[in-house]
Amino acid sequence: MSRERASPGSPAAAGRVPASRNRGVPRWRGPSRRRTGTGRRGARDRPPARCGSGSPGRVGPAYARSAGNRALRDHRVELRHLGVLSALAETGPLSQRALVDRLQLDKSSMVLIIDELERQGLAERRRNERDRRSYDVHLTAAGRDRLSTAERVTEQVMAELLAPLSAADRARLHELLGRFIEHAAGRA
To answer: In the chain, count of helices (H) and strands (E)?
Structure first.
């Protein structure tokens, strides 16, 4: 491969990067790892764009997720954290693998979520007493308190989102979503 001239002091001039690859094209550096609670508005906080082609089954949950994450921002958690915290509160300590299976998330996402929860002191990994090769994730007292607060916040957000529906409409929506989840869980 022939080397083109590069500006002095650049990585290409130092011979570390071929000049042909250094033409001002930004390189992809992997997925961003936005930390929770930075105060910046991330993609998970942004309301979805309005478009006529989005089905209510796709757009509705996106609006609910966006509203929930915005409301939880002050508590430095997101809905994805609440899923893990809720599972731990409901069942007690679980392995990361059990959490992946229970919440239908991929392993790498689960590792990031648990890392974020550990950094905030909301959960901790401990060696499994029966199998020293694996770790169980435990909910801390701070995690239990944060979960309680966050659940109240999300209930309030859902009440606001469902305000335009009558009590009968809400009951019907609840019943239909229950049937949908039951059917989808049977296919998984």
So the answer is: 6, 3
| Beta bridge partner(s), residue 139 | 123
Backbone dihedral region of 24: left (phi > 0), alpha (psi from -120 to 50 degrees) or beta? left
Question: What is the mean pLDDT, run by run of 10 residues, along the chain of 188 residues?
Answer: 51 49 47 46 53 65 88 91 95 93 92 96 92 90 96 93 93 90 80
What is the crossing angle of helices 141-161 and 79-91, to 10°?
120
pTM given for the model = 0.66
Q: What string of DSSP letters covers 43-91?
A: TTTSPPPP-TT--HHHHHHHHHHHHHHHHHGGGT--HHHHHHHHHHHHH
Distances (CA, A) of 134 to 9, 29, 122, 174: 48, 31, 20, 38
Between CA 79 and CA 150 the distance in angstroms is 9
Q: Distances in Å between the alpha carbon of 184 and those of 16, 86, 109, 180?
A: 51, 21, 21, 6
Which of 61, 64, 63, 100 is closest to 84 using CA atoms? 100
Query: Domain 59-187: which topology?
Result: Arc Repressor Mutant, subunit A (1.10.10)
Q: How many CB atoms lie within 10 A of CB 127?
A: 11
Number of residues that this document lists for the chain: 188
pLDDT of 134: 85
